[in-house]
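thought: user wants a sequence for this fold. calling inverse folding tool.
action: design(structure=
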């Protein structure tokens, strides 16, 4: 089995995150993708990263060990997923990744309220 192109480090304690990751896991990625729930104490973390850091924002680890976060992490994952590659191509246009990061930071401010709402439907 080939080494994963990406390791997705997600907050499995977050109902929003679980739903989104479940959607991604159901797709046939172009290259191998590993999914690691960092809310589990037994999940090995990348060197220098803390569980709190990884749960606060979306992260992926590339095959060469680089840790990407926020919009850059989403763009790296979307580039491998059918139906999502167009967003990765869009993010490659000048200034678009910066706008996506700005939107993601805005989402993070609303995330606690959205998590409370989503837990009602769990």
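)
observation: tool returned 122 residues.
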């Amino acid at each position: 089995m080939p080494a994963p192109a990406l390791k997705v480090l997600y907050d499995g304690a977050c109902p929003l995150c679980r739903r989104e990751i479940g959607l991604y896991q159901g797709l046939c990625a172009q290259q191998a993708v590993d999914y690691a729930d960092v809310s589990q104490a037994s999940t090995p973390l990348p060197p220098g990263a803390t569980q709190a850091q990884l749960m606060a924002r979306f992260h992926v680890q590339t095959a060469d060990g680089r840790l990407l976060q926020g919009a850059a992490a989403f763009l790296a994952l979307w580039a491998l997923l059918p139906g999502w590659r167009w967003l990765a191509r869009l993010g490659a246009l000048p200034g678009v990744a910066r706008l996506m990061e700005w939107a993601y930071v805005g989402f993070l401010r609303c995330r606690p309220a959205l998590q409370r709402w989503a837990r009602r439907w769990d």
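thought: summarizing for user.
answer: Here is the designed sequence. Residues 6-119 form one domain.
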